[in-house]
Amino acid sequence: MEFALTAEHEQIREAAYKFGQNVIVPSVGELDRQHTSDPETLKKLGEAGLLGLGIPAKWGGTDTDYISVGIACEELERADSTARVVMSVHVGLHCMTMMQWGTEEQCAKWLPDLATGKKIGAFGLTEPNAGSDAASMKTTARREGDEYVLNGEKTWISLADYADQFLVIARLAETDAKAPYAAFIVERDRPGFSSRAIKGKLGVRAGNTGQIFFDNVRIPASNMIGQEGDGFKVAMSALDHGRYTVAAGAVGIITACMDACCKYVNERSVQGEVIGKKQLVQQMIAKMARGRDIGRLLYYQVGWMKNTGKRHTREVSMAKWVNCEAAFEAANNAVEIHGAYGYCDEFPVERYFRNSRGAMIYEGTHEIHTIMQAEYALGYREDKPIARTLPTFPFA
Ligand code: CAA
């Protein structure tokens, strides 16, 4: 068993940290206050090479492993959740799922532009009446000759207004098959496609989230990822990747809370001593350190399982569940430590509090992961090997 990160991992951590602190942090407070996202961030993430992490060089990527993706997510979310969300949907849900389920031709066609940030990818599973119960989605795909025709809508779609293409899961129309779903790449410029931003979110306010609509959108049959009937498995394996990035990012929120709190408690004095000397404050800081260290072990393990091609649905659910809870606890305690200052946006911790709450809902609610873990423990659920895995690392 090897616990050390490689020199390359450390370089990626340093690069992502600097990107977050130099590019994201200076403007995020104002963007968040204005509920505005900056599409330039996507371009800059691409230019910095971060959108090519975890993608083989033959498809335009940086030929780095999946642990690198997690490390970048951690450091980006240390700056702001919105930067990590881009990694989650573009690298995790879109590119890695294409690498798992797409053909060689499909990967060669789409990944080079995605890995360099020339094109941005997103993911469409959730619908107004299909969230946790993903299998009740209503969006349909009807085969007509060499095309599929999509109708329906998806909601809570990160980068809805910015992405160039979406990995969309739809129900195959006019079939009684047991698994009547398929996954498709739908490009934004297809006639009948439209998007609309969701306003008034509690958190992730500097990020774009919205709805996407399909009104008789025609796509070539060659845009199908996997086969007819694979759609639900494609969706679930996309979540294996997305949840990984969320779990890693949650550690970044904890670190950001520690950054802010360790500074504040050494400056703020009560009764003649800095509050860092108060044991009740120390207890909250210690819990943050606990969450950070446990969280890293959990997501590094999942990264290793991805590298070695092992199924990791249970482990990634655990990492996402534990880390997001720990991040919310850390952010809540960070507000507590800052007192009234924690309740206004003069300090960043109220933003961490709002952002960390969202991660307990998206990519599987707190309740979904609780139930999944109970079902694994009770033997009601087990992870069987699956036919299609990510390319293992080192890449061929
Ligand atoms: N990889 C590959 N195949 C998988 C899989 C995985 N990770 N997970 C399940 N499957 C397969 C199973 O093996 C099974 O195949 P067979 O029928 O051949 O045995 C099939 O898929 C059905 O699996 P389950 O029996 O596990 O399905 P279920 O109905 O019990 O799943 C659930 C229930 C786990 C709760 C699932 O519905 C779920 O995860 N719900 C939460 C959905 C979610 O997280 N939504 C948030 C999306 S985030 C978003 O959309 C916003 C954004 O852009 C960020």
Protein traits:
396 residues; Butyryl-CoA Dehydrogenase, subunit A, domain 2; two-stranded antiparallel sheet; 10 helices; 49% helix; globular; binds acetoacetyl-coenzyme A
**Quaternary structure of the protein:** single chain
Task: List how many beta strands DSSP finds.
Answer: 10
Instruction: Let me know the largest β-sheet.
Output: 8 strands, mixed
* Element-by-element helix/strand order: HHHHHEEEEEEEEHEEHHHH
Shape: globular
CATH architecture of the largest domain: Up-down Bundle
Could you say how many structural domains there are in total? 3
Assigned CATH superfamily of the largest domain = Butyryl-CoA Dehydrogenase, subunit A, domain 3
Mean pLDDT: 97
The fold-level CATH name of the largest domain is Butyryl-CoA Dehydrogenase, subunit A, domain 3
Bound molecules: acetoacetyl-coenzyme A
Estimate the helix proportion, in percent.
Answer: 40-55%
Rg over alpha carbons: 21 Å
Low-pLDDT parts are: none
Text of the CATH class of the largest domain = Mainly Alpha
Q: Which class do the helix and strand fractions yield?
A: alpha+beta
Strand content: 5-15%
- Cα distance spanning the termini: 23 Å
Please tally the helical runs, counting DSSP H or I stretches of 4 or more residues: 10
